[in-house]
Amino acid sequence: MSSDLGRVNFSKSNSEVFNPPVFEAFEGAGPRAPTTRSISVLGVDMLVTDNNNKHNTSRYENTNLIVRRNKEFFIIISFDQPFNEQQDNVQLEFMIGSSPNENRGTYIIVFIGKGRRNGRWKGRVIAMQGNDVTVGITPDAGCIIGRFSTFVTVITNVGKQRTPKNPDTDFYVLFNPWDPADVVYIPRDSDRQEYVMNDVGVIYNGEFNNQYRRSWNYGQFEEGILDACLFILDSGKVPLLYRGNAIELVRQGSALMNSQDDDGVLVGNWSDDYSIGTAPTAWTGSPEILLKYAKDNGLPVCFAQCWVYAGVLNTFLRCLGMPSRVITNFSSAHDNSGNLKTDITLNEDGTINRSLTRDSVWNYHCWNEVYMRRPDLPEKYSGWQVVDSTPQETSDGLYRCGPTSVIAIKEGELSYPFDARFVFAEVNSDVVYYQSDKYGNTKIISVDTTNVGKLIVTKRVNSNAYEDITSTYKYPEGSDMDKKAMQMAERRGVPARDYTKPPETGVEIELQADTISIGENFKLTLNIKNQSSQNCTLDVTITGCVVYYTGITSSIFKLESKTASVDPWKATKVMFDVTASEYMPYRVDQSNLFFVAYGRIQETGRALTTTRVVALRPPELTIKVTGTPRVGKDFVVTVSFRNTFNFILKNVQLRLESPGLISTRKKTYDQIAPGGTVQYTNTITPWSSGKKVLIACLDCATVRQVTSQLEIIVQ
């Protein structure tokens, strides 16, 4: 066997391994050729516990050694006699994939003893005690991520005597955010604890005026998850050669989280019909999804929407050692054309013309950021990078997005890879309102430059509160720096905003409403402010429709007109009553209520419009613990829910899970009657101490997003 194994094959699987011969004779060597003294290997101790502690990998539920790039780990080799560095010629061989190749980094040789020389990985003899030799090995800072096999080979004049393949001496190499030499290095330890080591997160959703959160079990350390993440790369046929390149791995991961193109992990579904799978709102974490994908040998899991894609991708990235976090962009534009405009067309009566309105502004959209150095870009564009696995648009032929430098988005520098124009539009589009007459002619009646990208958040370090990171993506609207960024974006190919804004009307209108629970009546308030010296008589029509969180409107349930008179420089309010009996029959999956106010000023004939999303708060789910959680002692968890509606809830599914405590447990109920209560109890026996998070979710076709979480301390 040469040091250039597998010259032809281009290995694309970590699970397919090469099993080299135990004895490999040198060409031309006969049985009587002179030999060096014979030394044999009796065993190899990978010192799993000690090494994992030093490499910040002790939380992985895996019996094998797990190390990080560019950090030394130690093994003990036991020989049948004392090792002599001057006489004994011994080398360690580390192989990954079915075609180990030294030039491609899939076959690593580390020499100890006679003839020692440095290769890609460093090796040194640390200590010798009796027949045992402690060896230090340092993987290089850019080496391949994955599972390597270990062989100890004694070289004599006649050939190589190699230890047989032993799964117990296999080990994993991960990215190293603790080491400045690794491209994913992140300087602050508090950031590493949050963005690499935290296995429970918070994903924010709702809408701009009413954000709410759901806990998510990332579970990157749970049993089988590391192998599942490597299996994803294998299923996607990602060449091993590329698996040390953080940019390539992130880009491939973005594509492989969705099932478009490549039978990736999750099937997207925004149809409101989840009968052949699990509703996106029912999931409580990533492990259940990833383990199912691996168990079913790469059959995509049904179903996902944006926060599920982001949660699972976050697990994938953190599991492999990359600092990552889930981002929520409230009022997120989906701009198909890249023209920085979201066009909404109204009919003459103020209702939305759905045949002419193809763009949408999502109430929220979730993506990920991963922290890395970008050697392919100027240094200032390193740091947080956007990566999005929700299949919206293709990039280089596949449904994926990123990595995109957040700083480049803010500066309008959109010529660098990857997908910067699309992300820029998500946070910077203008919403342009048109009115269409009965002949199909349209005219602009209003432009809102502040609606999109209103609030961009992520979980705060060491807190469940959100951190407002809007300023990392964009300058304040209308500021000099904002204008400069837009000019740069236009120089980099974004179409100029060449539409003509309508003249100022001298009147401002705004819709207001409180957040309400599903099934409640409420009042919608239209605030009218006359900023002119003339009297203003405003004819206003309110259109109410149900809207998916993706901004796509469903049925119209309310159409009401009123007239208000406002004196010069004065303000007034117009109230509209909205009853549950109006909107409840039209509710759809994860829906909110979307109101459009269209006004026409009698004195001038000018039109104006504004919109408001009213979030519908789901009913409560409560988690209660009985007994003091202690290691090795039982305690009881009770999840309770009361049906506050006047209709039956059918085919209800309840999930409970907690990383490091229990895997997902499910309970189904055929129905819950109006006013009826269910209590699900579970006995848990902790095996480790510390802070744990219990996560529960109740889901059925008529009520989604019913979640709860409870932090406990196991003593």
UniProtKB/TrEMBL annotation:
SMART domains in the cross-refs: TGc
Molecular function terms, GO-annotated: metal ion binding; protein-glutamine gamma-glutamyltransferase activity
Keywords: Acyltransferase, Calcium, Metal-binding, Transferase
All residue ranges annotated as the Transglutaminase-like domain in the record: 298-391
E.C. code: 2.3.2.13
Domain of life: Eukaryota
Cofactor: Ca(2+)
GO biological process, one term: blood coagulation, fibrin clot formation
Active site: 306, 365, 388
Family under the similarity heading: Belongs to the transglutaminase superfamily. Transglutaminase family.
Identification of the protein by name: protein-glutamine gamma-glutamyltransferase
The encoding gene: LOC113042211
